[in-house]
Design a protein that fits this description.
The protein is α+β, with helices and mostly antiparallel strands. 29% of the residues lie in helices and 24% in strands. The termini are far apart.
């Protein structure tokens, strides 16, 4: 099962429970927020974000009257660690054409780059990628 499949399956399972005003059958959540949320009109699926060992699913509950929605976060442990796979340095983006493509390298250079990438993604902890990052600025 891929991370995307796991996230989608888990999200649907929790969403169905919330639609029936029952607690999420899996994961950790704030009980007080849940009790407030089920008093509101309807629930919608929100975003998902990842930690090195879980997926955090957000569900948005809307008020009958104007007001800020209530967000219930449900954290579900993943079956194995989550890693962030950054775009490797050999990928080239052609901004004007909107294309992303590989580059030509000497074999020895390619082997070094693959080794570095494997080390960076699988052998090192890369939790700093899970932290909130500011939006990129274009100048």
């Amino acid at each position: 099962m891929t991370l995307r499949e796991f996230t989608n399956t888990t999200r649907k399972q929790v969403f169905e429970a919330l639609q029936h005003k029952t607690p999420p059958p899996i994961g950790h959540f704030d009980r007080k927020t849940f009790e407030e949320a089920i008093q509101l009109r309807q629930v919608q699926m929100g975003g998902a974000h990842y930690t090195p060992h879980s997926v955090v699913l957000e569900f948005v509950f809307l008020h009958d009257s104007p007001g800020a929605p209530l967000i219930l976060s449900v954290e579900v442990e993943t079956p194995e660690p989550v890693v962030y796979m950054p775009v490797p340095e050999w990928v080239q983006e052609d901004v004007w054409q909107g294309e992303v493509k590989g580059t030509f390298r000497l074999r020895s250079e390619a082997e070094r780059m693959l080794s570095d990438f494997r080390h960076h993604v699988l052998e090192c902890d890369n939790p700093h990628y899970f932290d909130e990052r500011p939006a990129p600025r274009r100048e």
